TrEMBL record:
A Gene Ontology molecular function term of the record: structural constituent of eye lens
Lineage: Eukaryota, Metazoa, Chordata, Craniata, Vertebrata
Keywords: Eye lens protein, Repeat
Protein name: Crystallin beta A1
Gene Ontology biological process terms from the UniProt entry: lens development in camera-type eye; visual perception
InterPro entries named among the record's database cross-references: Beta/Gamma-Crystallin, Beta/gamma_crystallin, G_crystallin-like
Protein family per UniProt: Belongs to the beta/gamma-crystallin family.
Alphabetical list of SUPFAM superfamilies matching this protein: gamma-Crystallin-like (SSF49695)
Originating gene: CRYBA1
Residues annotated as domain Beta/gamma crystallin 'Greek key': 20-59, 60-106, 113-154
Domain of life: Eukaryota
Known function: Crystallins are the dominant structural components of the vertebrate eye lens.
Transmembrane regions: none
Amino acid sequence: TLSPARMTQTNPLPGPLGPWKVTIYDQENFQGKRMEFTASCPNVTECGFDNIRSLKVECGAWIGFEHTSFCGQQFVLERGDYPCWEAWSGSNAYHIERLTSFRPICSANHKESKITIFEKQNFIGRQWELCDDYPSLQAMGWPNNEVGSMKIQCGAWVCYQYPGYRGYQYILECDHHGGDYKHWREWGSHAQTFQIQSMRRIQQ
């Protein structure tokens, strides 16, 4: 287990919704080397791992990243067991089986989540306030398959490229960017399009 002194504290200390705890393994099905974390890890290779191949989220919600320093494809990691890469990636992303950095989602609050989506970037055009999960925005009346910008009033959300919670994942938090995401470039370093067709609240 990594000592707290060696853990990189890039997030606030656990608050009322904490603490956080995740256990990572360097082999699938919770085999091989293991290590527990209660705070952010910007680079698992500095902990002696070449990659994460399975993990268990015991407390809190986390966001995993394909690359070090919280870059690349994003994966939401809610409480539960993830025996292999497919368990957290879904049926969607381009198939590079890497997870090399992660951090807690401090603002995750499933019961009190609110987001406003806008038709165009910079909070322009038609807008719609959401407080629930939507497996298909278009089925609920959103006019197209794109979202131009978003404001997160409270909680944390995971938005998906395709309906049914499939495709690239973008984790949006009220305590990042001041909750304002005015362009797809702010959704994550892997974002390449305005396309979002489903979204849900993140479970703490």
